[in-house]
Design brief:
The chain has 183 residues and is of the alpha+beta class. 21% of the residues lie in helices and 25% in strands.
């Protein structure tokens, strides 16, 4: 299953988390994360584009979370938009503009580029509401960031307690184990 809007755009999330698609979806559900698009577990990173320098990888010590988690090579968030013919329309990651100027490439690094100020690197993402328009207009997707405090509140579940339910969606880079390391 994948989400497909009226413009014919299909969305898939790919994670390098281990355990298979069903296990990753189960883990997300345990964190009150409900996605209405396909989530693919790709621990061998066979679905990555062979684009040099796009992806930032690091070892994730996920066994510390217990349960079915195992250590794996995490790919930091990235977005790849492919046309129907398989050619690349746009890419985004921590290694593309404007985040290519942010150093060091660690989750807690403050971001002060491209109109994003005061957020930390782990919180900067493509704006999901702009994804469709950016594809149709053949331009880069707009970015937005969440302040560290917001990320920490989401991690401990405060929005769930206040609002009665929290729904989170990620474009690509579903693994959120790194957020647990913020606390």
């Amino acid at each position: 299953m994948c989400i497909r809007d009226r413009s014919g755009i299909a969305l898939h999330a790919i994670t390098s988390e281990t355990g298979g698609d069903a296990e990753v979806i189960k883990r997300l559900g345990e964190r009150s994360t409900v996605l209405d698009f396909q989530v693919l577990s790709d621990p061998d990173q066979e679905l990555l584009l062979p684009e040099e320098g796009l992806y930032l990888k690091r070892t994730m010590d996920a066994t510390k979370y217990g349960g079915s988690y195992t250590d794996y090579t995490m790919i930091q968030p990235a977005l790849v938009v492919l046309r129907k013919d398989g050619t690349v329309q746009q890419t985004w990651s921590w290694n593309t503009a404007p985040l290519d100027r942010v150093h060091p490439k660690t989750e807690m690094t403050p971001v002060r580029v491209g109109g994003i100020h005061g957020e930390i690197l782990v919180g900067v993402r493509p704006m999901s509401a702009d994804l469709g328009p950016s594809i149709l207009e053949d331009r880069d997707v707009k970015l937005a960031g969440k302040p560290k405090l917001t990320l920490m509140i989401e991690m401990i579940g405060l929005p769930k307690l206040i609002c009665g339910g929290a729904v989170a969606a990620a474009v690509v880079g579903v693994g959120v184990g790194y957020l647990r390391s913020l606390l």
